[in-house]
Fold this protein.
Amino acid sequence: MASDSLAEALFRPQNIALVGASGDATKNTARPQRYLRKHGYGGRIIPINPGREEVLGETAYPNIASAPGPIDHAFIMVPADAVPAVIDDCCRAGVRVATVFSDGFAETGADGLRRQRALVEAAHKGGIRLIGPNSMGVIDVHAGSPLTVNAVLEIPRIKPGPLGVISQSGTMIGAMISRGQERGIGFSKLVSIGNEADLTVGEIGDMLVDDPETSAILMFLESIRDPEALAIMARRAFAAKKPVIVYKLGRSQAGRALAISHSGAIAGDDAACDAYFRHHGIIRIEMLETLLEIPPLIIGRRPAPGRRVAVLTTTGGGAATVVDRLGASGMELMPATAGLKERLAPLGIAIGDGPIIDLTMAGTRSTVYQTALEGLLAEPDCDAVVAVVGSSAQFHPQLAVEPIITAAKASKTPLAAFLVPQAGESLSLLADAGIAGFRTPEACADAVRAYLGWFGPRPHTPGKPGRSLDDAMAILSQAQGIVLDELAARKMFDALGIPQVPAQMLDETAPQSDIKYPVAAKMISPDIAHKTEAGGVVLGIADSDALMEAATEIRRRVADRRPDAAITGIVVQPMETGLAEVMIGYRHTAEVGPIVTLAVGGTLAEIYGDASIRLAPTGLETALEMIAEVRGLAPIRGFRGHAKGDCQALAAAIVAISNLAQIEPGQQRVQEAEINPLIVKADCVIAVDGLIVLNAGHREPSV
């Protein structure tokens, strides 16, 4: 009987059809059949090959329709143009799930994306779920079911273990297995999800949350295609004490371009992805090595209360390579306490007050190292311990590693071990004992930083809309073009309840007597987003004559720089000063949806890179956290006696802008909004300039 559960059909199918199976054992399309038998698969294998009656000792059939049922899982290895017919056959045969190895779909462009969507639609009509296309397969290590073309399965045995892996890159599955084998690290299930056309990372992750053989979920991501499903899964995983740990491409523009070209996905702003991961309790690491080595540091734990790290070593230079990176990441290095010094004194060990607890060569005695490590692990104010071991890790594991294993058994404090030399045997001993062992100082520091920077999923507590979003939606419905001009943007910000500097249109035919100087003059144009770059702003205008000259100069400069732009008028505002200028931005990103950003304001805000980002909408408490994170806003927080600004009013403005995310989607949507600068005073905030861009031409995410 076919498997009733989708997870069973995916990971532990009793009956597998290999569509396009080759009788030539040297070909890629022969690998799944060879690997299944080699690694102990005990179910039924059904090769599908119209040119053969037998494939590698198994009876072959010309198509799915002629094969004896039932079939739980079909692995499809035919050219892209032949895949739709195979899916139709699978639908008629009642196949539960199909993995499509074939490429030539969304990763090839618009035509491929259309073919991919049609494939998914046909599969859904027939009740089939798909992995891929462009997938290298699915491996269940514990069940001996390696349904894959990945050449790593040429190894004699895959070590079973607690790590589940989901990768948007098929080759990274092989890399994880081969690197893990070298360190004694074992896996439960591994999925190459390919283009993620149907079954998503979040859905597969959900299966791993419910899998008793999986204790941590590791992901190699190029993009986030279904942020809602991934968020739901991550929150379930946190509740189940199964950490979700992600290595994601996209830190650079080149990385984002690679993600787009490789799988046809949309790659968005990396800082927005950071905010998304943090919001949903997902741990993001910087190095691929860390993805393999960090799990024992986190499995079964909750986020640490602080960021204090103690580093114990017998080699000062080796420890310094870790400490340097920990310090650069903002970790607080914890020196030896008085209690630890007293504990080591009878053993003839004197410890200084530096950031490294260096036992020197005397620490190579197992009793000394174990005593010191047990003392550190017992310290109530210590959030994590890094144990650094020198050459003895390579030549004397009993001296270097056994004290670590013994001390760790009696402690709940997170422990990371960095072995300075190449020490494969010691790393395997640590892995078998469930202790995080690291080959490089970079990966060790990355892991400790990631763990101590981990928070649980944030509650979804958006603030209430300012005055009303009804007025804002009415303005959107009447908007013309992509960029709202200054006056329309002011109406939107007013509807959100954000205080603004008074403004009036300039009558350029005659001086106006009701203007109080000094003032700023700014052009109004629906064609120009950033007025300063086009020469459309003049500040500090002292009198009426200077104002008229400024208006003429604005029109001249804009005509020179942007002759295509229409100027519909000049707006005049009184000059404003305060304790600080900030920028508040809102954007609907391609990967994770709406975000809100706070940064130091002014024309150089983007250059400084001193910003805090959260998912939108957000609440007042989170907005106050954002203010605390921006280094350049320390003065308005009262740093070194500076006059404090109205941080409550600033937080309220952040919440108000973030509420743009609560506007019901319709024909128009706010794609971007920005107030820059927002003046922070001692008792209020006031917006000076703003921008709103609508979603015309917004690219639809791929399937």
Notes: The mean pLDDT is 89. The CA atoms of residues 141 and 158 lie 7 Å apart.
